[in-house]
Amino acid sequence: MQDKIRLLVIGAHPADIFDQSGGTMAHHTSRGDWVGCIVLTHGARIHDRVISDSMYHRSEVPEGDELSRMMAQRSDVKAREVVAACAIIGVHEQDIFFFGEDDAVLQVTKENVHRLASMIRQLKPNVVITHFPKEYGGIGNPHAVAGQIVMEALFLAAGVDPGDRHPPHRVAQVFFFGQGAAHVRSGLWSAEGGFYNDIFIDISDVAHLKIACLDAMFSQGYGGAYARKRIETSDGAMGDYAGVGYAEGFIRNHSTVCRYLPVSEMDLQKTQLSDHENIQRRSFKLDESKIPKVALIDK
Ligand SMILES: [Zn+2]
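Above are the sequence and the zinc ion SMILES. Below is the predicted complex in C-alpha cell form.
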C-alpha cells in the first residue's frame, strides 16, 4: 500500500493546473492524498473574456486607472473560477493559494523565489507538479519562467531563511507538465528536444470531471467546445500513446530510485489484453451525459 502523499501543483495561470493535471489531481484527492495548489499570477491578461478579448478590436483601451480597476475585478472572477473548479476534483478551498503576481511580465526574482520557498516550507509537499522550465526553450514563455521560479524556490526551501521559522523542506520528486514541452514540437524554441513524457497517468475515469473544471474556466474561453476539443486532441493523443482512453503526461525531474524495478499495475494489465482489447481500451470516449454541470461565475 502506497503511503499517502502531499501533492502541490503550481501553475503560472489560473487554468494551467486543470488543463495540465486536473485528472491526476482528481485521482490523488480520491485516494485521500492532500492536494494543494498555488496559482502564481492572477491571469487577468490571459485570454480573459473582458480584458484581452473585448479590448482586442477597440481603437483605444481605457485609461490606466480604469483598466487597472477592471483587471482587479477580472482577477477576482478568475480566482473564484479556480475555487469552483477545484471543488469538482476534491481540492479544498483552504488548500488553494493565490500568489498574486501580475501576469504582465513574470520573472525569476529574489522576492518571488523567497516567498514561494517559504510557502513550500509551510505546506511541506512530498511531490510537486509544475511547468517544464525549458518549455519552448524557456524564452518568452511565462510557463517556463514559472517552472524556473519553482525550481529555484525548491532549492531555497531545502535550507533555512532568516524571517521564516519553518524548518528546511525537501520534496521527493518534481513532475513537469508534459503537454507542450515534450509532446508536440510546434515552434523554433520547442524544437530543441532531448526530453519526453516518461510518465502517463490514465485519467479516463475522471476525464468528465476535468472537462467540468475547464467548463468552469468560462472567463478564459475554455468551457464548452474548447474543453471537449482539448481533451480529445491533447489528453486523447497522450492516451493513445499510453494505450488508454485519455492520459496526462509528465516528465520526471530526476530518476526514480527503487529497491525493485518499477512495473506499474497498468503496465502489467496491458500485457493481459489482446490486440483488439488494447484498441478497445484506447477507444474509450467521454460520455457527455456524465460531465457535471457547473454554475458559471462569469456570465
Ligand atoms: Zn498558462
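Strands lie at 6-11, 34-41, 96-101, 127-130, 173-177, 199-202, 247-252.
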